[in-house]
Design a protein that fits this description.
The chain has one domain (3-113): Arc Repressor Mutant, subunit A (Orthogonal Bundle). 47% of the residues lie in helices and 18% in strands. It has helices spanning 11-26, 40-48, 50-59, 67-74, 78-90, and strands spanning 3-8, 33-37, 95-97, 100-102, 107-111. Helix 4 (67-74) packs across helix 5. The protein is globular and about 45 Å long.
Amino acid sequence: MRVLTVRVMTVNDAFRAAAANATRAVEGDFIGAELVFPTVEQLAKTMLAPNRWQIIKAMESAPSMSIRELSRIVKRDFRGVYNDVQSLLNGGVLDKEGEKIVLPYDRIHIEFNSDDAAA
């Protein structure tokens, strides 16, 4: 099962975690997929906006598909879905397979604390 772990942490903490993960990877440990945001607000803007979360949920366990096909599934106009997909691609949540898009994870695990919003 491929799990994407999404965290909120400061830039300094993210660099420390990346260095620790690099050390573990060199030693042969499996690291997994991780996405880090500097603030809860940035996480919300990139992934948790209702229309973007709708896209993520629609793509869970789905094969790769065109944006036009995704637009039909979520019952939204192509342009709006296209813009949201571009943000999710740029944010590292979705991937491209040729001309199609895919959610390459079976599960998304999101971690943040209430005081992360103040960071």
